[in-house]
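In the laboratory, one determines a bound structure by crystallizing the protein with its ligand and collecting diffraction data. In a computational setting the workflow is compressed into a single prediction: the sequence and the ligand go in, and a structural description comes out. We illustrate the idea with adenosine-5'-triphosphate.
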Amino acid sequence: MKIIISGKGGSGKSTISSLLAMNLVKNNYRVLIVDTDESNFGLEALLGLGNSQELMEHLGGKKVLGEKMKASFSKNPGEPRVPLFDQIWRIEDIPSECLSVSGDLHLMQIGKIRSFGEGCACPIGSLSKDFLRNLKLGPKDVVIIDTEAGVEHLGRGVAGGADMVIAILDPSFESIRLSEKIRGMAEEAGKPIYYILNKVNEEVAKQMMTSLDQDKVISTISRNAEVEHMGLIGKPLDITVDGISDVVEFILRHAKEI
Ligand SMILES: Nc1ncnc2c1ncn2[C@@H]1O[C@H](COP(=O)(O)OP(=O)(O)OP(=O)(O)O)[C@@H](O)[C@H]1O
Ligand SMILES: [Mg+2]
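The predicted complex, in structure-token form:
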């Protein structure tokens, strides 16, 4: 089961990805979080893990992959692009230097933008897409893909290698608007799409539901002072948060169907 976590900037994608990953491990699943966000650097702290080599670096760096990407575009219309990443990997085949691990919790980063003028994030998107397509999972494996804010990953087809998209909505007009866009793009990709309402109280959730397809809302999570504090000091989110167990149960039900 591979799940894309999408949503507006700051809606809680990395927070909820981390909480889900830790809770799935507690349910005896092996979890890989794939960090496809080219900008933010804090995910390993929220998971209590160390840093590892980016997959992009492992494969030669952005420049090398960028050249490979340009060459991969077919010259003949209708002919498919040559993938940037053509190994078939299981989680245990991922090079150990590209993984941060604690028990059944694994984190890998696709790549980050680090320097002024280094160019666009296109190779990161293409690599994410090809890596996810080629990743083979066992019945007790779950992959959570934490994405950058907005819809670029969907525009680049990263969801093509996933089984489901979950959009995180904070209580804002922008989030509701964006969820419509994410839904449309996920449906174009033929992927089921669900919503989590984050940082909401009962009244706000009710109000948001009037603008959303309620059947797609799998959980509501309130603003939580401990989550906020851990997010501020960069410490592991190994805490119980109401609403997360609903999402875990939902994922496990779906995982059995796949
Ligand atoms: N339920 C919650 N209660 C309190 N604070 C929260 C909650 N969810 C997220 N936050 C806080 O909101 C901020 C943004 O969260 P997070 O970094 O997870 O968002 P994001 O969607 O990953 O952002 P980005 O788009 O920058 O990657 C963080 O400070 C985090 O601690
Ligand atoms: Mg994030």
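The chain has a mean pLDDT of 91. Keep in mind that any predicted model is a hypothesis to be tested, not a measurement.
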